[in-house]
Design brief:
The model has no long low-confidence stretch (mean pLDDT 89). The protein is mainly α and 90 residues long. It has two domains: 47 residues; 36 residues. The two termini are 49 Å apart. It is elongated, with a radius of gyration of 24 Å. The protein is built from three helices and no strands.
Length: 90
C-alpha cells in the first residue's frame, strides 16, 4: 500500500494492518522532516535580524524602507507586464 493512501484495511488481516502502520509511520516521518526543515530555514533567515536587533516593521516605515517597498512594487508590475506579453504572444 502506498504512503498517504487512505483506504479500508481488513482488521482481521494483521499483515495488512502492519503494512498500513508502516506506511503511516513513513508518511509521518516525512511530514516531521519537512516541518523541521521549514523551521530551520526560518530560523536561519531571522538569525541576523535578531542578532542586529532589526525590526522590519519599524524599518518599513522609514524613507529607505518605503523606497525599497516601492522598488519591489515596480519589479512586481514589470514581471506582470512581461508575463502578459508572453501569454498574449507578443
Amino acid at each position: 500500500m502506498e504512503a498517504g493512501t487512505a483506504g479500508p484495511v481488513d482488521a482481521d488481516d494483521p499483515a495488512a494492518l502492519r503494512a498500513r502502520l508502516r506506511a503511516l509511520d513513513v508518511e509521518r516521518a516525512e511530514e516531521v522532516a519537512r516541518a523541521s526543515s521549514a523551521i530551520a530555514e526560518l530560523e536561519r533567515r531571522t538569525y541576523w535580524l535578531d542578532r542586529w536587533e532589526l525590526d522590519l516593521d519599524v524599518f518599513a516605515r522609514t524613507p529607505p524602507g518605503r523606497l525599497i517597498d516601492r522598488a519591489f512594487a515596480v519589479r512586481r508590475r514589470l514581471r506582470w507586464i512581461r508575463e502578459r506579453r508572453r501569454t498574449r504572444g507578443g
